[in-house]
């Protein structure tokens, strides 16, 4: 039996990626960056730093200026995280707690945003550890975020189950030697073939631990 479940946030706790794509599209158009829908979907599960590094690989100064401008734009752009809250999460968390399972978050998103999502949906207190990709030089698919989270929980990879949706997140967890349950995306066709399990609802975690 597993001892802990580690949750991704976007695409698992909140179905937010469509809203993020719309936000990015507005910013890209405003700043004259031609970005196709295919490229947009490639960035599902990534973070802003990695995104701009790929979009503007050569001009470091321009990249840094646009990244700073995007971070400010993102702070000002309204997103209602209650409207996109996964309706299965509360019962899932309650069920895991009743089984004595420890809970953590490991998300590529900014720490401030992770806290906002958890707090507005009144679930922050379920999690004993919250880890953000911005804490590391490289976020997902780099495995460091998951290696760090498991270490801080003082557990072994075999003790933990990760729930993810994106290919980047699944790869990060697998590279950290973790079992991964891939939640079927409500918004995109995502390659989840590398996951240990594929599930339709977070409530299925209760049968996997």
Automatic annotation (TrEMBL):
InterPro entries: HAD-like_hydrolase_sf (IPR050155), HAD-like_sf (IPR036412), HAD-SF_hydro_IA (IPR006439), HAD_2 (IPR041492), HAD_sf (IPR023214), PGP-like_dom2 (IPR023198). Pfam families: HAD_2. GO terms for cellular component: cytosol. One of its GO terms (biological process) is DNA repair. It comes from the Bacteria. GO terms for molecular function: phosphoglycolate phosphatase activity. This is Beta-phosphoglucomutase. The lineage of its organism: Bacteria, Bacillati, Bacillota, Bacilli, Lactobacillales. The gene is pgmB_1.
